[in-house]
Amino acid sequence: MAQLDLREKLEILADAAKYDASCASSGTAKRKSAGGKGIGSTEGMGICHAYAPDGRCISLLKILLTNSCIFDCHYCINRKSSNVRRARFTAQEVVKLTLDFYRRNYIEGLFLSSGIIRSSNYTMEQIVEVARSLREDHDFRGYIHLKTIPDADPELLRQAGLHADRLSINVELPTVAGLARLAPEKSAPRIEGAMRGLRQEIEDKSDAAKRYRSAPKFAPAGQSTQMIVGADAATDRDIVQRASGLYGRFNLRRVYYSAFSPIPDASAVLPLQRPPLMREHRLYQSDWLMRFYDYGPDEVADAADPATGMMPLDIDPKLSWALKHRHRFPVDVNRAPREMLLRVPGLGVKAVDKIILARRWRRLSLADVGRLTVSVAKLRPFLIADDWRPVTLSDRADLRPIVAPKKEQLELFAA
User: Fold this and answer.
1) Short name of one Pfam family for this protein (predicted)?
2) Are the C-beta atoms of residues 196 and 249 closer than 8 Å to each other?
3) Structural domain count, the chain
């Protein structure tokens, strides 16, 4: 490997990290450096691809330790057989970059992943050393998210959790068959075994913290995972069921979806075209329905096309489910329980909570509900209000074109 300076390494390894989608800071412990104690902070609404209430984009340093790898996963641009320019940081170079970027107010934390070099244990040792040095040598109090290696020794994963806010172990692909075909050197049982071990460690340390004030924190922001969408034959229905199982078995904070992107010198077993980005967006919406709208995985999967197993791209999964269950609507905004109001297309969690609060004091009209949502047009066929009843509208056979969002041609030079 040619000698590269720090700037050249950063250019290569920051670009290589763009395929990791799972970076967020929700749920972590609050730390700050007020009073001259340490450096950094986790205060605020989020880190990396998140926005504060005043519109600020809050970011972190998102890099790979190295893009060299001993594995040859077909879908990975950094695979062993890929013809890409390689680079590698030392642990202390990552520490220096993180502190320098923080002092310049460029970042508020670190997201660190890596290819596998020498062995899983050797690579994991380097990742842990970065986090340890930041915390213990420099008293860094900002956010740290580490992508961990499931094949590494459990003790190394435990050490990672003592220094990091969040840990991730990627399941890579939605199905075991897809993983065996596209990443034969990786094992689904080993991946899930490592995730199970992290869950147990997180729960044990959380229980200890309730009993003993001196108990060390372990990955206070929990663990997350990521799966690639569109590289194998998995349908959206398969992906939703898989995500639900991961949430239930491993108590994950998030499942992230990354649309497959064709890579240079791609393997012949990969698709030639990337899936529509809207498919990734629909999967995130489906994920939201399970996490915040009390939908069961079977209900979300029911929103998919019965023949193809794919979510419709022109309408969101919530509207698709409502159109398939017309017999459940319309619902009375002044009488319906919360779980049914959450199924009304166009009503979000905050709007439903405000409706439930407001109707304790007065009966709500359609205009009242309209003030709580962006558009009342989508609501009309599914809702009964004090001054509104859909009558024939809710029974129309051609309802979908009426409630589906209208396609618009964006203006290139719009003000």
Assistant:
1) Radical_SAM
2) yes
3) 3
